[in-house]
Automatic annotation (TrEMBL):
Species assigned in the record: Streptomyces spororaveus
Domain of life: Bacteria
Cited CDD domains: CYP107-like
Family matches, as InterPro entries: Cyt_P450 (IPR001128), Cyt_P450_B (IPR002397), Cyt_P450_sf (IPR036396)
One Pfam family per UniProt: p450
Protein name: Cytochrome P450
Family membership noted in the UniProt record: Belongs to the cytochrome P450 family.
SUPFAM superfamilies hit by this protein: Cytochrome P450
Gene3D superfamilies linked: Cytochrome P450 (1.10.630.10)
Length: 397
């Protein structure tokens, strides 16, 4: 049995089998080293909030974890930090994602969505990832950070190399990391010369006026994380949500009939097909019991958000999509102090993206070839989503 291959190619079936038979299981992790995989909802939720499970890689046992090698200027980010550093850095950016700030972004997000759909015209065929799900969030997050049009680039090519590296191109990830570091270094230098009313200018001001609150590496890493995570996770949320609805036309029709259901539907769609199969790896600072297994300090722990969200002990008939379900408590965006910082913005983007699609197109169906999923142990997202569409007839004036 090729467990890692099954987890990549048939994740829901493979995770479900492990959840039923070995809910805390030793596997080969994304980079080949041994790791403990946790799959039950209660175990995953508890572990996500357990302060003994550290994100700081210095707590990994010697030789037990290789991971992705990032330079310090990209590695000093929230995904590698515990309190108090995590608390300090998160506080610096959390105000950008308050409900009030996100509400102020809803109208610009809708204008961006409508503009992308205008380009598609009234009828045709397209890859909805390339034409819609990818450009919408990159526009939103670049506007939030204040990245000028001339400095925007194709992050999807870089993130693909990092999330699902091609074994036949071993240098591609290294080149992507170098390109990202050069991009953010140049971007921060540009924003220092041309500050504006945006999040990145605010962070630069904090760094330059009070270096004790934010180091230069932390500044660069924050920009990298906000842009990369804010973009990539939302691309996958939008793409996965559209694919799920097109695969379940009865639910698509339900939302057309009652668009007020969209906020609840977004929660169910995130539960059903979230953007991450696994949470960021953790390292116990002491021996920790999860289920019936005691995991030694320093070993790598992988928490399966996907398996937890389809645990029948928490959600009735979890393998079924049900836009009328109360999906509150799902873990698609994490839990505890490391809960996704940009979750309010991501929810708004998905809701608005779906609303704009449903209003614009009276007919939206899957097309050939079949959608392709990214081959990754970590992420759950589509590389392509071919669709055919036809615009709704506009009422006469």
């Amino acid at each position: 049995m090729d467990l890692q291959g099954d987890l990549i190619n048939h994740p829901h079936d493979a995770y479900g089998h492990l959840r039923d038979t070995a809910p805390v299981q030793r596997i080969a992790g994304p980079t080949g080293e041994p790791a403990w995989l946790v799959t039950r909802y209660d175990d995953v939720r508890s572990a996500l909030a357990d302060p003994r499970l550290s994100l700081d890689k210095t707590n990994a046992a010697e030789g037990s974890y290789r991971g992705l090698a990032l330079p310090p200027a990209l590695d000093a980010n929230l995904l590698n930090m515990d309190p108090p550093d995590h608390t300090r850095m998160r506080k610096l950016v959390s105000r950008a994602f308050t409900p009030r700030r996100v509400d102020a972004l809803r109208a610009p997000i809708r204008r961006t969505a409508d503009g992308l759909l205008d380009v598609l015209g009234t009828e045709g065929r397209t890859d909805l990832i390339a034409a819609y799900a990818a450009p919408l969030p990159i526009t939103v997050i670049c506007d939030l950070l204040g990245i000028p049009d001339g400095h925007r680039t194709d992050f999807r090519a870089w993130t693909n190399e990092l999330i699902a590296p091609d074994p036949s191109r071993p240098q591609a990830a290294k080149h992507a990391i170098g390109a990202m570091l050069a991009f953010f270094t140049e971007l921060i230098a540009h924003k220092r010369r041309h500050p504006a009313d945006d999040l990145l200018s605010d962070l630069i001001e904090v760094r330059d006026s009070d270096g004790d609150r934010l180091s230069e590496d932390e500044l660069t890493s924050l920009a990298f994380l906000i842009l990369g995570a804010g973009y990539e996770n939302t691309v996958q949320l939008i793409g996965n949500a559209v694919h799920a609805l097109l695969s379940h036309p009865e639910h698509l029709a339900r939302l057309r009939t009652d668009p007020s259901k969209l906020p609840e539907a977004v929660e169910e769609l995130a539960r059903y097909e979230g953007p991450a199969l696994l949470a960021i790896r953790r390292f116990p600072t002491e021996d920790v019991a999860i289920g019936d297994v005691t995991i030694p300090a320093g070993e790598t722990v992988l928490l399966s958000l996907s398996a937890a969200n389809r645990d029948p002990a928490r959600f009735s008939h979890p393998e079924l999509l049900d836009v009328d379900r109360d999906a509150s408590g799902h873990l698609a965006l994490g839990h505890g102090i490391h809960y996704c910082l940009g979750a309010p913005l991501a929810r708004a983007e998905v809701e608005i993206a779906l609303a704009a699609l449903l209003e614009r197109f009276s007919s939206l169906t899957l097309a050939e070839p079949a959608p392709r999923w990214r081959p990754s142990l970590r992420a759950r997202g589509l590389l392509e989503l071919p669709v055919e569409y036809k615009a709704a007839a506009r009422p006469r004036a």
